[in-house]
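Review form for a predicted model. The reviewer records the input and the model, then writes brief findings.
Reviewer: anonymous (R2)
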Amino acid sequence: MIMGYNREMGKGNNSGEKFKSKIGGQALIEGIMMLGPTKGAMACRLPDGTIDLETWEENNGKSAPWYKRTPFIRGCFNFVCSLIKGYKYTMKSAEKQMTEENEEEKLSETATNIIMVIGSVIGMVVAVGLFFVLPKFFVGLIPDAENMGILRSVLEGIVKIALFVLYMWAVSLMKDIKRQYMYHGAEHKTIACHEAELPLTIENVRKQTRFHKRCGTSFIFIVLIIGIFVMCFVPKGLLWWQRSIISILTLPLVVSISYECIRLAGNNDNIFTKILSAPGLLMQRITTREPDDSMIEIAITALKVCIPEDKEEDKW
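Model under review:
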């Protein structure tokens, strides 16, 4: 099935319109997860150098449930599903790095699930505090901030973006995160090769760009920008903690709008979408790194499984 599809891909796209795939991915610990219309896959490099591949069924194609397809509803559902799967397979990829010497230290499935829940809650609390509460607290220290109106929302957004960039830069200095960012680059380059309709070889993937408009980094930036506009409609006279609560409560709306914006950016290449995508693409200079060939091999292994037999199923 895949070989037949790749022979067609090897001819290239002569229609003049760039093919855009539904397949997306995420860098894991020494591995990559790919999610396609009908299949999902996780490929990891084991400590002994071999590749471990896990696959499962997905339902993101034509038969996907209504809440994954309906505009302004699908955004929240897809975002939450991505977070859950991302965290789940990050934990699984970490387990695969356990060697025989510490095999007995592996946790039971129940213990792992408990840790996942606790980690998710802690991560959520930290994210809310850092990106929702702290910016509003800082701006709230400005005299007469309650009556600043739109300017206050803009200042809060600037502080939020600055904190996000600073945070991503700081974690990029960690050795393990650097490798994860290299896998992130391998994921982008492999999907770019697939969208260029070239055979999935290390040589072809190596030539591709590591920047992609539909990256999660770009999505987060759009969320931050849309959040500024939404908060501009909040009445004056509120304290910083009241604005923090409103910002959290309006997050589903912001995520829904942002998801439609990134779909728009992914499907079009005009001045508006270029401006919309520019901050996220710039941020990817931090969150992606050039991968080595072994990482590209992992990305190719995961991606091939996710390519559907019907190419129409794969169109973004």
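Findings: The first strand starts at residue 24 and ends at 28.
Further findings: The mean pLDDT is 89.
Recommendation: see findings above.
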